């Protein structure tokens, strides 16, 4: 008995030592030794747009003083694994893309999806049926077809499917795609309209769950692999456009009793299901209701969220993302939609729009988010088409009168993340000593660290980038964003 105990003790000690050695080896995977830092900058009132602006070296670092501004990166402290950054291919985006010349189409595709010529988008969102960013409402079935016998995605074959296929090809053949419904069909809803809210009627729960499976299989038959789906776009908003309302309890019950079991029955259990898909303000309550129910939670990959809680005039609720992450660390967080509302052509180059992106992305990543998806990748010179007049900004617009593409500052700000932080990167601890700067860092699988630093002030700032006992000194212009690769 003592001998067996001795053997077990030795075995446990050996396993613990091996585990510790493995952990230390993983943590020691990054060093600043002989590393050069390449700095890329985009800045207001300059021509700098993702422009290489400096090549720096590390030197010995001493205790910084309070009069210095510093960014501290600790590679040993690692957090979530990064999935990707991308945007939505809506009907509006696809319709405008089709109006471009072949040369401009190629330029556009490269601008978003090529890692060398563009900003390397690595994830894609699209819609199930119509949204407000369609030229009109439409459906994949005839009205009243509860059994979905008339189901067809023929509508999408004209514009949307061809663009998605080209995006996937430009991205190198892989672009994880997830799809979101804006509304069930009118006959399935309490208000008998796809517009202006209403609820899914209980007698159509199963039909609507079947609808997701039909869509996924139809798109995959077209050669577009579907990675995931969300339950409902903005389930607490009664909009003038396609919308449908679910309380937290209603979404939970639809998930666990219909959508989850149906996808499993149809052989689609690999499809990731995203809950909520609405603003940060109520996401904690939605998480508590859904993730606290084991039967619902087992079907849910994670939670999607938007940034429009500021419609009240209040500030963005970044901390709510952190609250969900700390309460449910096994669930993933994904920013699923954001755009600058109320289109105004005079504000194409309005810098604050870009800074909204930079601030949101830095906070969301630092709070545990694994993926970040912008809204429309392309709109016209009016901020549409949108069949209810809800015109908005996109990072790139096309002037259909002259066929030219208009790149907004938001495109470049997003690119400071998407071009340099690649799928499967791991976020590492990053902090700043003054509120003038915001920063986040990721360690890529190729061993290169990417640190993004944003200056939202009116002044040029000199700051230290400090890693352990090494540092470099960097200047960032006023209203600028930098990516440091080292």
TrEMBL record:
Organism: Flavobacterium branchiicola
GO MF annotation: an example: hydrolase activity
Cross-referenced InterPro entries: GH (IPR017853), GH30_C (IPR033452), Glyco_hydro_30 (IPR001139), Glyco_hydro_30_TIM-barrel (IPR033453), Glyco_hydro_b (IPR013780)
Family: Belongs to the glycosyl hydrolase 30 family.
Residue intervals of the Glycosyl hydrolase family 30 beta sandwich domain: 424-484
Domain Glycosyl hydrolase family 30 TIM-barrel, residue spans: 84-421
Stored SUPFAM superfamilies: (Trans)glycosidases
Name the record gives this protein: Glycoside hydrolase family 30 beta sandwich domain-containing protein
PANTHER family reported for this sequence: GLUCOSYLCERAMIDASE, LYSOSOMAL ACID GLUCOSYLCERAMIDASE
Signal sequence extent: 1-19
Keywords of this entry: Glycosidase, Hydrolase, Signal
